[in-house]
Prior knowledge:
- The complex is a heterodimer.
- By secondary structure, chain A is mainly α.
- In chain A, 82% of the residues lie in helices and 0% in strands.
- In chain A, α1 (3-16) packs across α2 and α2 crosses α3.
- Chain B has ten helices and no strands.
- Chain B is an all-alpha fold.
Amino acid sequence: MSEDQKHIEQLLQKYLEAQTSLEEESQLHHFFGRAEQRLDPKLYWARDLFVYRGHEALASVNSDKFKVLEGSNSISYYRLAAAIAALIVTSLGVYRLEENYKERRIKETYTETRKAFMMIAEQLELAQEQTVYLEYIDQTMNKLLK
Amino acid sequence: MDQKDFKIIIKDIEVRLYRVARRILISHEEAQDSVQEIVIKIWERKEIIAQAKNIEAYAITMIKNHCLDRLKSKQANFVRLEDQFADQEDSLEETLTAQNTVEERILRVEQVINRLTEKQRTIWQLRDVEGYSFEEIEAIMDMNATAVRVTLSRARKEIRNQIAKQYE
Lengths: 146, 168
């Protein structure tokens, strides 16, 4: 076993016990990050893990995995969206109010008209009664005159 | 702090916020939502935060708490996180060989890490990817030094065991 590998294995042992410093962890990272070297298969796990670590630290910065709105504009976009939403809600509310108002006006007019017709009908009925009464008077008068 | 200063500060840390959120929630979409919510919260509290010694640690603590709460409410709603890994479990049964590409090996490691407990994978992320000192991690996680090291050690050993198993 080379001196290099012995040192790496000792560092890995420390790494597993969470006793390595950031400096030592970066040594491990550089060792396993080197081009595919002839590696003892028992260290494959460490190679995969340190390659992943490096990939993860860089990947999210440049990849399209990170699509959060440009930091500088995220708040104004958010505000704009909120403003548009508020505008839509308000317009809808006003429209509904207006609709309600129209509907109420129609109902009122209908009721008023209905009342008016009822009154006319009542008067007509009364008039009819009066007519019958008049006819009755007419007949009586005729009888008396005869 | 005016908007210009705020933009500069946030630009530097939102990628970290995203990575930590994604590690905890294991979902790109949920991580994005969380980052946006936290950035807005930070803007609202900018006066208080401007006085904090370490704005980055403050922001990371906020996102960690936010994501852990989100995870808890998800679990409370009986959304089993394990369900998300159903497909991954199958692929983990396969063995790794020297023929596997780097991309395939990276994917395997990601699956192994995402199957750790949320505390283990958060601490692993903070140390191994974000490179925070143990003191910073203790503050962010609100844990003592021993507890942080024990959790990190368990996480690393579990990762080793799971990856090594695939090469047997």
